[in-house]
Amino acid sequence: MSTLTIDKAGPTRKVKYGSMSRDRAWALRWSYFFLVLFAIFFLTPPLYMLITSLKSSAEISAATNPWWVFHPTLSNYVELLTSNQFLRFFWNSSIVAIVVVVITMLISIPAAFALARMKFWGSATLATGVFLTYLIPDSLLFIPLFKMLAVIQDVTGITLLNRWYVLLFIYPTLTVPFCTWIMIGYFASIPKELDEAALIDGASWLQTLTRIFIPVALPGLIAATIFAFTVSWAQFLYPLVFTTSVDQLVLPVGITTTLIKGDVFNWGQIMTGALLGAAPPLIIYAFLMDYYIAGLTAGATKG
Amino acid sequence: MREPPGARAAPIAGSRPNWAGFAIPLQESDTMADVVVEQGHTVSAARARKPTSLRNILGRKSTVAFMLTLPLILLVGLLVLYPALYSVHLATLNKSMQKFVALGNFQFLFKRDTFWMVVKQSCIFALTAVFFKALIGFIVAHFVHNIPGKKQRKWRGMLLVPWVIPPAMSTLAWLWLFDPSYSAFNYTLSLFGIGPVNWLGDTFWARFSVILVNVWYGAPFFLIMYLAALKSVPDQLYEAAAIDGANWWQKIWYVTLPMMRNIIAITALFSLIVTFANFDIVRILTSGGPLDKTHLFATWAFKVGIEGSDIPLGASVSLFMVPILAIAAIFILRDVSKRGNEA
């Protein structure tokens, strides 16, 4: 109320309004200025990857201006994309990431459905437990998991260490808790009337899930899929611990261990490999940015 | 129970005739055909029902729910909870894992200077990195929020790139930027006449670099979270503040921060856990060097446990993360459940 009287009494109202819009214009200019600075900070490493990947080793060791390519060449790309070793890394990474996404979805969608809709004994505790599991980092579990795999290998005779397929069982521990958690959020936001109607029409749980929940929560499902894929693609610690032979490595470990030979760094190839390794998540992100962000924010905001 | 009775009806309809029957009066008249079918179905099911038949147990709601969550429970139990407990067991063994040494590994660690250095470095690393991530995220979120409409999307898309690139890949780019002989940073600095900085060889600069890379990688996460939170603050509050003559600083302090307090806290706690447990960046950038001056719990545990094949000692090192993670987790849980209750 008091503000209203001040406004009316103030003879400088028009001037004040003008100053506000001027303020806003300045705020916008400053925003752009600082955003450009931050964008430079954020985009320097990826751009530098690209610049270096286009250089020949001769140009790199000539130590000319590092921020410019004087003789652009695609030889690094050609070399890596025709190297069986690199293609093997790429293949291993793709298989692992895709299978892990499928496993994750098969586990977390039914679980999220049960936890969101069928209240049963211990369901609330289990949901909290899933969330807590998400908070347990990989760096806490890699040593016991390594020892566990070694013991299982000794007892059963099945080779587990130094095999890429063991990652198929390990990665879901990173993806399933988070995916279940965001799917619970999405499923819980579906109006009850929808599944009640399905129940009345005689749908089974399975039908309610596949015909109603999955289509309606599709954005959440895509977000969870993207998350699971990015996490499995980027995982570094587990493959570093569990796999050592060159033909068993996934991309991040392969690039960091094989392209660096002793003290000789072939930076052109390393940067090309890193860029190619970063490409799949970047492409997914470029096309599905909104889902990506939805998954990111849903994790912490959807209580 | 907040659920209406209809929702509790078992959807494997046959075995629960009373629920199906209960549903009939709720039906609209135009679905009569369905109702008839439903009735016929229930009658036959009722006739076939035996008191403790397997089908009956399978059809029970709690059984179905249990079956649906079973894979999750197995996964979490066998590959998360069991290893977590197993590492406690491992930590009580000697190096060859033949003998029980109780707290021997911990006593050994407490006597080593490197261990205390790792504790100190992990705390410095996590707290500094989270602080700057939060600060940069907060500032940049405001700038992005100022940008109108469509352009905002583009800026947001650009600024989120560090978060999308797998950290192992982007850290390689940083390693190359910091390279001692061909360092692009030193080249740029030399243009301004500033002498070469030994980025990864000098204790201070190595710690600085490691934190810088972590801030670079994690700040976009804060940016996105804070941007979402900023959008949820109603404009009327800012208008009211402007009418009351608040300047930009007062608007942030009295309007934005109180409205975003919850999300700031939860994002920072999340990030604290992830940063504290960080492995990739230090491993690739410095491998803990120079002279173990940048080791974190994770990288040192890797060095001792896997590279040095002293698994029990490595397990003991990584177990020291648990108290800090647990404290952060408790606060997050409290926040999450509070939000849940409000909703």
What are its keywords?
heterodimer; A: 303 residues; mainly alpha; MetI-like fold; 2 domains; two-stranded antiparallel sheet; 16 helices; 78% helix; 1% strand; flat; disordered N terminus; B: 343 residues; 18 helices
The largest beta-sheet of chain A arranges its strands as: 1-2
Write down how many β-strands of chain A occur, each being a DSSP E stretch of 2 or more residues: 2
Number of strands of chain B: 0
Quick one: CATH class of the largest domain in chain A? Mainly Alpha
The number of helices of chain B is: 18
Provide the structure class of chain A.
Answer: mainly alpha
Report the CATH superfamily of the largest domain in chain B. MetI-like
Q: What is the CATH homology-level superfamily of the largest domain in chain A?
A: MetI-like
- Quote the beta fraction of chain B: under 5%
| End-to-end CA span of chain A | 37 Å
Mean pLDDT across residues of chain A: 81
- CATH domain topology of the largest domain in chain A: MetI-like fold
- Computed over alpha carbons, the radius of gyration of chain B is 29 Å
- CATH fold description of the largest domain in chain B: MetI-like fold
